[in-house]
Structures are given as structure tokens and as C-alpha cells.
Amino acid sequence: MSTREYDLIVIGAGPVGENVADRAVRGGLTAAIVESELVGGECSYWACMPSKALLRAPAALRAARDVAGAAEAVTGGVDVAAVLARRDRIVHDYQDTSQVEWLQGAGIDLVRGHGRLAGEKEVTVTAADGAVTTLRARHAVAVCTGSAALIPDIPGLQDAAPWTSREATGVRTVPSSLIILGGGVVGLEMATASTALGSDVTVIARSTLLGGLEDFAGEAVGAALKGAGATVLTGHGVEHVARSSDGVSVTLDDGSVVRAEEILVATGRVPRTEDLGLEHVGLEAGSWIRVDDTMRVPGNDWLYAVGDVNHRALLTHQGKYQARVAGDVIARRAASNDVDTSAWSALAATADHSAVPQVVFTEPEVAAVGHTEASARDAGIGVKVVDYDLSWVAGASTHSDRYEGRSRAVIDAERGVLVGATFVGPDVAELLHAATIAIVGEVPLHRLWHAVPAYPTVSEVWLRWLETAGL
């Protein structure tokens, strides 16, 4: 057993852990990062990047088919082998050499193996060969281990060897048919990709699609999936799952049976904290880790939990935002500098989650930030809702011959500011950041009136929102 000492120890070398360590090192600290799998984490190899790689070719083909002049040049469908090969290039053939080189260039030491908390400011790392290294932190330990797919307690499901997002994004042979349990982001993105790649897809959701977003978002994606040939079953529970030599069968709560070659479970996430040694620091193994707005764990002034593990927002970009805050705060506290923990601190010492942006890369795309109409009303905000059909703006007609889209602005009527925005339509992800800035900056609507959108672009919807709101 060897022992090493650093100012900061980070458990988990995904984008979140990398950013915590990088910001702390920039602040003058030494840091080691512990990783048992690939440096770059879930997002780089099994989630964000490979899933978007699978979705891009079908989206590009759809865009071409929707424009006269380009449509005539389209003579075939998606080349599945080429899509999978491009996916492999984007994930660097599941090799992390470039990510390791980045760590080295940033001055961050990598310790390979499974890290566990052994006590205050102490982490033990067990390598693949069984060798154990003890790491001691002078100032802080940051847990950045992310989350894993939830496998619900459905009779027969575990024995049916279900896919999770890892198997779905890393697919080598596209199944002829696929059952997807779950109507959330992962389930619908994979339904979109799998249908385009040739699978006969059935989506089974206990309630509606894309719950938590505006209702029209899930309705539009569901309609598009059906139009592409998928089956979408909402409001159905699953009673039993069984695998046989013929594939997988799923018995629904109405007694009907759905069969397919494979089954993908996309019903939620659980924290990767089960075998982390949380019990050694007074926390519950397998639990989400509660933190304050600096990402520090109450009762442990040396321990931080950043990204998915704190359950504030299970999105890579939000985790990286938290990581920048945490890394800076750790460095400041190590130097005995004051940390301003007030909201919107000028030193960016706290992470706010009132305006979380999210994109669902389905067909059509869904982009949303801040409140929905329902969540704003639940929060006691006196809202004014502005709906506008995106196909009515001039930019839509030049973008596509068959443009269909919808948008909603949720306005705090008393303060005269935007508190929520949702866009549904082709390539609407590019509209989202303007809405995020308007909400985070609390830009008054009368000031937004002077932010003139270029013509002809789909961004002209901003002008139409303001006109419809009475400005």
C-alpha cells in the first residue's frame, strides 16, 4: 500500500470531475483525480456524445428531404454502418488517451481504480490488479461519480438482461425490434435514433411523454415517432418481462403483450454512491448527496458532491457549471479567502438552478429553460403565457418547406420578465441560449423590445412574442 497527499482529491473523471480539478489547480492547488473506467466519463462514451452522433445523420437526412432542390438529391436512407462508424470516431473508439493527455497538460494526476472514502479527507483506491493506494487531501475531497440507469423492480426484468443507455448508444448490431420502457429524454432520443436506424420500436410510458416539460412538447415528439412508424403506448404499467430464445415479451397492466428482439430501460437514474464509503463519513450508502449552493456537504466542511450525485440537475452542462463553482470555492477556502455565498455572487461562488436549459434531440427537437406554465403557477407567479406557431415567422419558410413548430413564453406579469421558454421544432436548440440569457439576466421585456432579431430567421419569434404580449 502506498500513500500520496494532495490539496484536492476528486473521485470521478467525467466532465464534472475534470472541471472541479482544473479550476482548483488554476487556483493554485494540487489535485488528483480517481477513475475506475474511462477518463471523460459517461457523457463522452455512453451518453451525450454517442447518442447525438446516432441522431445526427437521420436529422440531416430529414432536413435535406424537407427542402426542394436538396430533396431530389436524396436517393437512399441512412447508412447504418457509416452512422455507427462515425459514432465510434466521436467516442475515440472507447479509448481515453486524449483525455488522459489533457489531464496531464492541466497538471492533474490520474489514479486509476475504484475510489472509496475511508474517513475524513482520505480516499483509498483499489486498482484492477488489487493494489491499494491511499490518498489524503489537505483541503477537500469532491465526489463526482455521476449516476447510473435505474432498473425498476418489475418481475422478470432483471433476468431479461435489459439494455440501458450504455448498450443502446454503443450498439453494434441494430435490433430488428426494440421495446423502450420510459417516456423521458433518454427513451425518446433512443426511440428516434433506433426508428431511423431501422428498428421496429415500441415505447411504453407509465404516464405522458417528456413529463416536466410543456405538454405540447411530448405530444409533438410522440406524433412524430408514430409518423415514423414507431408504436407509442402511454398510460401503461408493466406487469412482467420475460426473455426467451425468440426475444423479449412485456406484459402490460391491461393484459396485452408486446414482443421484441431487445428491451431498453430508460425509466430514471440512481446515484453512483453505493460502494463509495459514504457510511465512513456519516452518509447513507447509495443515496443522493445533499449539498449547499457551493456544492459542499453540510456537516463535512471538507467534502463536496458535484454533478448528478447531488440530484440538483442531471445534465452535463449543469454539472460542469457546478464544477466551476466548486473548484473555485475549494481553492479560495484553501487560501483562507472569503467566499461570498449570496445569490448571483460576483465571484461565482454559488450555483443557481432556477433557469436550467435542456435540449431533447428528438424529431422534432425540444428546447426549454426555466419554468413551464404549470411550474410557474405552482411557484405562485402571476403568469402571462404567450404561444406562437414557429411556422408563422418568415425564417421558417426559408428553413424548410414543411416547417412545423411551436413556442411558449412564460412571463412574470408583475415583474415584466421572462421566466420560462419552450421551443419545439427543427433545430430549435439554437434558439435556447438567448432565452437562457433573458431569464438569468432578468431582462425587462421593454428592454428586450430593443433586441432586434435578424430577418429572416426563426429567432424572429422573439419579436412576435413581444407583440403578442402587448408591447
What is the element layout, followed by pairings?
Elements: E1 2-11, H1 15-26, E2 31-35, H2 41-45, H3 48-65, H4 80-90, H5 97-106, E3 109-112, E4 114-119, E5 122-126, E6 132-143, E7 147-149, H6 165-169, E8 177-181, H7 185-196, E9 200-205, H8 215-227, E10 231-234, E11 238-244, E12 247-252, E13 257-260, E14 262-265, E15 269-271, E16 303-305, H9 316-334, E17 357-360, E18 365-370, H10 373-378, E19 383-389, H11 394-399, E20 406-412, E21 417-425, H12 432-440, H13 445-448, H14 461-468
Parallel strand pairs: 1-2, 1-6, 2-3, 6-16, 8-9, 8-14, 9-10
Antiparallel strand pairs: 4-5, 5-6, 7-15, 11-12, 12-13, 17-18, 18-21, 19-20, 20-21
Summarize the structure.
The protein has 471 residues and is of the alpha/beta class.
Structural summary, described in words:
The protein is an alpha/beta fold and 471 residues long. It has three domains: 2-40 and 96-148 and 270-334, FAD/NAD(P)-binding domain; 158-268, FAD/NAD(P)-binding domain (3-Layer(bba) Sandwich), CATH 3.50.50; 364-468, FAD/NAD-linked reductase, C-terminal dimerisation domain (Enolase-like, domain 1), CATH 3.30.390.30. It contains 14 helices and 21 strands. It has helices at residues 15-26, 41-45, 48-65, 80-90, 97-106, 165-169, 185-196, 215-227, 316-334, 373-378, 394-399, 432-440, 445-448, 461-468, and strands at residues 2-11, 31-35, 109-112, 114-119, 122-126, 132-143, 147-149, 177-181, 200-205, 231-234, 238-244, 247-252, 257-260, 262-265, 269-271, 303-305, 357-360, 365-370, 383-389, 406-412, 417-425. The strands form five sheets. Strands 1, 2, 3, 4, 5, 6 and 16 form a seven-stranded mixed beta sheet that branches. β4 and β5 form a beta hairpin. α1 (15-26) packs parallel to α9, α3 (48-65) packs across α4 and α3 crosses α7 (185-196). One of its GO terms (molecular function) is oxidoreductase activity.
